[in-house]
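Recap from last week: sequence in, structure out.
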Amino acid sequence: MKNLTPLEIAQREFRRCFRGLDPVEVRNFLEGIAEQLQGLLKESILKENRIEKLETQLETYRGRENEVKEVLFALQRMTDDMKDTSRKEAELIIKDAEIKAEALLERGHLTLGRLQGKIADLKREKALFEGKVRGAIKLYQDLLDTEAAEDASEPVQPESPGAGS
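Predicted structure tokens:
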């Protein structure tokens, strides 16, 4: 039997036979079935439309999900690239700072060496100067001692009052 529509069920005619079924009762029954079938068909159509709508939404959401996944993947790659770039920049900055620190340290050592040399030269000059000053003081002390000895050995003669000028 083929698929019947509610209209076909409602319009179906049966053969009449003697002492057959009550045609009014059969007609009422068939109309009830036709109404129920009509309701089921409407419900089925509504559900099919709803399914189509939901499938369309599902496809849209799946497309969006794929887009979100692609964006997240791209962001992850960008984040990884940024981390790598930052790490490389940090390494370069550290290397540059180390080179500059070594250069400053080397200059500091050179300056320290020069200053230590100058300090040694100044200490030598101080020692020489102290020696010269001590020699001069000794010379003058000896002269004073000699003069004092000469003065002590010579008798002092008084000067006459009108003899000087």
